[in-house]
Structure formats: C-alpha cells, structure tokens
Design a protein that fits this description.
The protein is of the alpha+beta class. The chain is built from 2 helices and 3 strands; from the N terminus they run E-E-E-H-H. A 3-stranded antiparallel sheet has the order 1-2-3, covered by helices on one side. The chain is elongated, with a radius of gyration of 17 Å.
Length: 92
C-alpha cells in the first residue's frame, strides 16, 4: 500500500451502559496550516436517545454524566505532547 495519505474519515460508536446512551468519536484529517504539519479534527458526542429524566435535577445529573464520559474519551484520545499544545486546563 502507498505510504502517503490524502485524507481519512473515521467514526466509532461506543455504547455507554452507565447512562444507557452512546459516545460517538469522529476523527478526520483537514488541511494543515503549514506544509510540515498534520491537522486532525477530533469530535466527541455523548448522548442518550430516550432520556427518562423529567426533573431538573435528573437532567443536570445526566448532563454531568455525559460531560464526564466525553472528557474521559477526550483525555484517552490525545497524547501528552498534544495536551501541551492546549496550555493550562481550566475547569468550568
């Protein structure tokens, strides 16, 4: 196979039994800002198709679980070298 790559698109769906939903990881190459660089988009979507939550507290709890899962997948998808590109992390 050739050793050069003109582009790619990958999408993975991970069932999440903790909140009865999914995490979808999408990754694709984009044009880099400099010829000697590679650029990639990493998109993570955590969701639940049929939420049974009805109260505000239940919805906020679900949103926090989705956020936590998304962050775990993000941190597991990047290297320390990539992490250093972002600078200091701020919690919101």
């Amino acid at each position: 196979m050739p050793q050069s790559l003109g582009g790619f698109f990958m999408q993975l769906h991970f069932p999440q039994p903790d909140f009865r939903g999914f995490l979808v990881l999408t990754q694709t190459a984009i044009s880099p800002p400099h010829p000697d660089m590679n650029s990639v988009i990493l998109d993570l979507d955590a969701f639940r198709v049929d939420p049974e939550s009805t109260s505000d507290d239940q919805i906020w709890t679900l949103l926090e679980e989705l956020r936590k899962t998304k962050n775990i997948f993000f941190e597991g998808s990047i290297t320390d070298k990539t992490r250093d590109l972002f600078g200091a992390r701020k919690e919101y």
